[in-house]
Design brief:
Layout lengths: L1 E5 L3 H12 L3 E5 L3 H10 L16 E3 L2 H5 L4 E4 L6 H8 L9 E3 L12 H9 L5 E5 L4 H4 L5 E6 L3 H11 L4 E6 L2 H23 L4 H21 L10 H12 L4 H10 L4 H8 L4 H16 L4 H11 L4 H9 L9
């Protein structure tokens, strides 16, 4: 199958490699012309996962027309902040019947739309749109290390198509029809990972991190239920699975941002140094706004928001969580 991959960051590079391993003809869209040129001539991405090698089946361009021409499926892997603009640029070259799956995780600022909802507005035909989420660090997927993930769509046929596209002996793919829940899980876990990074940076132990992850998951499930998600989804790969890996892994940008901030760094400094968007920082604004709109109690998200955007000292955040009135353990 000819498959177009839109986005040439680490995850886009890993996806290209995975699809290439399965024998698909992959066309990659890269915003940076130098990346596109290197992929086409040297069969590698010079900026992201540069040690990953592609076959000659993988070609690239910084223009949409040649990448989307003849594609029978599209995989979008751009940062959430650029999804609408990217989709708008793609739309004239995308056939009405071409299925699209998005791997980006987040909520759009202003509209509060999930990423698949943004694509529905830009592309139409919502039955051909899906999302993929799970504990899937690009660094490990690109090395063929065992992983599992979830493909969600309101159309079972679309979910089945992408399940078959991605599934390999090392990448196990499940389907789920709770598209809102899977996307909300992928959005929220990044915020909790920032909190866990702060925990690491302050030198707290495993008990503190496990407590943050568990109560953070409860906050996310409450938010998800408010917008129609099935709370059972939060116990699965897109929920607990992705939360665990993002909150604990050395590969996690969100966790490492929190650790840096606890040691005196800043969000701006981190993004300038890594040349990467920290999705949790963007998602935190949207989830904080959603919680305020719906009157939902989310103390961990509130603390992360105050640290990122109102200058709250990480050390001063602890009593805001620990000295709250005692209560029962509920979602």
């Amino acid at each position: 199958m000819r498959v177009a991959v839109i986005g040439a960051g680490s995850w886009g590079t890993a996806v290209c490699w995975l699809l290439d391993q399965k024998g698909h003809e992959v066309t990659l869209w890269a915003r940076e012309p130098e990346i596109a040129d290197c992929v086409s001539t040297e069969h590698r991405n010079p900026l992201y996962l540069p040690d990953v090698r592609f076959s000659e089946r993988v070609t690239a361009s910084h223009e949409f027309a040649p990448v989307l021409d003849g594609a029978r499926a599209v995989v979008m892997v751009t940062p959430s902040v650029g999804v609408r603009a990217t989709a708008h640029g793609m739309a004239p070259y995308l056939g009405d019947d071409v299925p699209v799956i998005i791997l980006s995780k987040g909520i759009e600022d202003g509209s509060s739309l999930l990423m698949t909802q943004v694509l529905e507005e830009e592309f139409g035909h919502p039955e051909r749109i899906a999302g993929l989420s799970g504990p899937n660090h690009a660094e490990e997927v690109s090395r063929g290390m065992p992983s599992a993930t979830v493909v969600a769509s309101n159309s079972q046929a679309t979910a089945d198509l992408f399940q078959g596209l991605f599934a390999t002996s090392f990448f196990r793919v499940y389907t789920n029809t709770d598209l809102v829940g899977v996307e909300m899980c992928g959005t929220g876990k990044n915020v909790i990972a920032i909190a866990c990074g702060v925990c690491d940076g302050l030198g707290f132990g495993d008990n503190a991190k496990a407590s943050l992850m568990t109560r953070g998951l409860a906050e996310l499930a409450r938010l998800g239920a408010a917008v129609g998600a099935d709370q059972r989804t939060y116990m699965g790969l897109a929920g607990m699975g992705d939360l665990v890996v993002t909150c604990t892994s050395q590969h996690s940008r969100n966790r490492s941002l929190g650790e840096l901030i606890a040691q005196g760094g800043t969000l701006q400094g981190y993004e300038e140094a890594t040349k990467m968007v920290v999705e949790g920082a963007v998602a935190c604004r949207a989830l904080h706004h959603l919680a305020q709109q719906r009157g939902i109690e989310v103390p961990i998200i509130e603390v992360v928001y105050a640290i990122l955007y109102h200058g709250l000292s990480p050390k001063d955040a602890l009593p805001l969580l620990m000295d709250r009135p005692q209560g029962s353990e509920t979602l």
